[in-house]
Design goal:
The chain contains 8 helices and 17 strands. By secondary structure, the protein is α+β, with helices and mostly antiparallel strands. The strands form 4 sheets. It has a 7-stranded mixed β-sheet with strand order 5-2-1-6-7-8-9. A 4-stranded antiparallel β-sheet has the order 10-11-16-17. The radius of gyration is 22 Å and the shape is elongated.
Length: 310
């Protein structure tokens, strides 16, 4: 079956590789346009674009998939199906109608739970014990199309969103290829999504990642892991932003936001037990262990973090 793969970030690369290695004929890749990055704001191609170029596959980078010129290019590739992983743009019906078997998305949740841009992050933040990945045909309504297959994955107590995404991409790659096989062989059929159990996972913004130390330790632990690596959990110290890596719960008690500093550790009080900070990243500096940061800025026990900006 002739396929055109659509995807953009690093997490989509192993799935692209699986499709390229499958029995299906990969005739093109669709990805987001090159984006400015770094201090110099130099334009850089997406991870999927870079991998596609290594594979020698034609790459399409439309500003928007509704562009008529892009749709003409896509038609010229004559795809029978378009597998999708984290492409990052809404597809109009005119584009959805081009491949006879539609656009088949690999979504990183067990639908209908966590429809939207950040399913892995929301699953961790909500304290779910199990999540998964689902293949489904894209329709106009957000992540509501009929499904083909699903896999499940346990969420480990220390999982960050980055950790979990890696495992879901690895397992999901096989699921997506198996879905394409079943569609081509005519043995796999669509199943409407259930109406019960629908939840939504909008993109997490920087403001969502600010830690409120008056919350319980368990909730803070989940929030920090859900926001790692992006958008990155944070608090404030001396009026500046302090980025936080995953924390560890302890059995000690401190007032919310109050620090206890030793040579080896930095504890922060919450609404329940204190948490021990892992790595932190002060504004304008590199990531470092919290104890090293505390020594460098001479933080004393009893100081409070999380105050408002200056």
């Amino acid at each position: 079956m002739r396929v055109v793969f659509a995807g953009t970030p690093e997490v989509a690369v192993p799935v692209l590789d699986a499709v390229a290695a499958s029995r299906h004929e990969l005739v093109g890749v669709v990805t987001r346009p090159d984006a400015p990055t770094g201090r110099g704001r130099r334009l850089v191609a997406s991870p999927v674009a870079l991998r596609a170029e290594e594979l020698g596959v034609p790459v399409l980078k439309p500003e928007h998939p509704r562009d008529p010129a892009f749709q003409d290019e896509l038609r010229a590739l004559r795809p029978e199906c378009c597998p999708v992983v984290a492409y990052g743009a809404l597809l109009p019906q005119s584009a959805l109608d081009i491949p006879p078997h539609g656009w088949v998305n690999l979504h990183f949740s067990a639908l209908p739970a966590w429809r939207g841009a950040a399913p892995v992050q929301h699953a961790i933040w909500a304290g779910d014990e199990v999540t998964g990945a689902t293949t489904f045909r894209i329709v106009k309504e957000l992540d509501a199309g009929p499904t083909y297959g699903v896999m499940t994955e346990r969420i480990r107590p220390t999982d960050t969103a980055g950790d979990l995404l890696v495992r879901l991409a690895e397992g999901g790659a096989g699921l997506l290829v198996a879905t394409l096989d079943g569609i081509e062989d005519g043995v796999l059929f669509e199943h409407p999504q259930q109406e019960d159990g629908v939840s939504y996972a909008p993109k997490l913004e920087v403001d969502d990642a600010r830690v409120d130390w008056t919350q319980p330790a368990a909730a803070i632990d989940r929030q920090v892991r859900a926001c790692t690596p992006a958008p990155g959990a944070w608090t404030t110290f001396a009026g500046e932003r302090l980025k936080l890596g995953p924390v560890t719960r302890t059995d000690q008690r401190l007032e919310p936001g109050v620090l206890e500093v030793t040579k080896q550790a930095v504890l922060v009080g919450t609404a329940t037990e204190a948490v021990r900070l892992g790595d932190v990243r002060p504004h304008g500096r590199k990531q470092m262990p919290a104890a090293d940061w505390a020594r460098g800025v001479r933080v004393d026990s009893g100081v409070r973090i999380g105050e408002a900006f200056r």
